[in-house]
Amino acid sequence: RRVLTQDGAGQFAVAPEPMPELRPGTVLVEVKSCLISPGTELGGVPDRRKSPDPSRGARAFGYGNAGVVLVVGEWVEGIEPGMRLACMGAGYAQHASHAVVPVNLTCPMPDGQSFDEASFAHLAATALQAIRRTQIEFGQNIAVFGLGIVGQVAAQLARLSGAHVMAVDRLRMRVEVASKCGADLAVNAAEEDPVERAASFSRGHGMDAAIIAFGGDATEAVDQIVGMLKTAPDGHKMGCITIVGGARFEAGFPTRFGNLDIRPSSRPGPGYHDEEWEHGRDYPPVFVPWTTRRNIEECLRSAAEGRLQLEPLITHRFPLAEGPMACNLLVEHPEQALGVILNP
After folding, report:
1. Are 124 and 109 in contact (CB under 8 A)?
2. Residue 308: pLDDT over 80
């Protein structure tokens, strides 16, 4: 098979490598589309280029693709050769011509859905899990900071949950995409004050919660979020901050954050990284209704029904052979690219 690799100097290449072993509980997929994650996969590239690590050789990467089943391993039920699958998982659903993926990290695609849309499965499920962690209620005012792919999907899902959504970023293109995809208010934080906009947007009630969907230093964003959340009669701020990106921030505890809930949400749902679950041993649905696979299923269904808009998030398509060019575009020009698809 052919794979897209990244080395310790932040350089990309396409190279041949042996096909992974088809183990029990896995399926072999001929990949049709891959989605590059500009945050998790490429966020550390600038640092690697400044301080290369020669000891780290070129490695295949990626965790979201879609394709057609070629072979089914032992113990796999409900999936047959020829089926169209969305696939996810680091070390499995790589940017490659073929992938071997555990059965519970795959999901059959709805009829008529494109492989490009289905390749969003991992990032879309991650956004949905952040919505579940935030426990959004109908009519709440929600802010989403960071409008990469996860933030864009989270903003749409929050609105589908009945919330009033304010989407915030510092890149004009991403703000425009959020506005086109239905955010009630899209704010460019490089040009205007989100706290002032939130006051009028929430009709004086204050924001109920915020989702941070970007990596790096989030101290300024957290300060802005605290400034826009609800204020109790005793002067304390109230609300929830869900962190789905690899963010860090400085804050004084406990007084300023005493009545705030800080909720990490870094996974696409329960089951991911549980090897037994991934390879087919499911949890009792009555106790764990929203596993990673169920989250994927719901995202694919919403996209197929036209409620979740994924096509507008795609800005570029490249063949796998031009994967290095695609990655460099995302690293060097984040103001121009968002959803970048590779088609092996």
Report:
1. no
2. yes
Rounded Cα distance between 18 and 67, Å, is 19
Q: Is the pTM of this model over 0.90?
A: yes
Burial class (CB in 10 A: 0-12, 13-18, 19+), 262: middle
Residue type, 5: T
CA dist., res. 119 & res. 136, Å (int): 26
Please, which residues have CB within 8 angstroms of residue 159's CB and are 6 or more apart in sequence? 165, 182, 183, 184
- Model pLDDT for residues 266-304, shown as the tens digit of each residue: 899 999 999 999 999 999 999 999 999 999 999 999 999
The DSSP-derived string for 123-147 is HHHHHHHHHHHHT--TT-EEEEE--
- Contact between 124 and 161 (Cβ < 8 Å): no
Q: Beta strands 314-319 and 237-243: pairing type?
A: unpaired
Task: Specify the DSSP element, H or E, that contains 342.
Answer: strand 339-343
Answer yes or no: are the C-beta atoms of 4 and 96 closer than 8 Å.
Answer: yes
Helix, strand, or coil (residue 193): coil
**In 3-state terms, what secondary structure has residue 284?**
coil
Q: Answer for the pair 152, 334: CB distance below 8 angstroms, yes or no.
A: no
Q: What is the 3-state secondary structure (H, E, C) of 166-189?
A: EEEECCHHHHHHHHHCCCCEEEEC
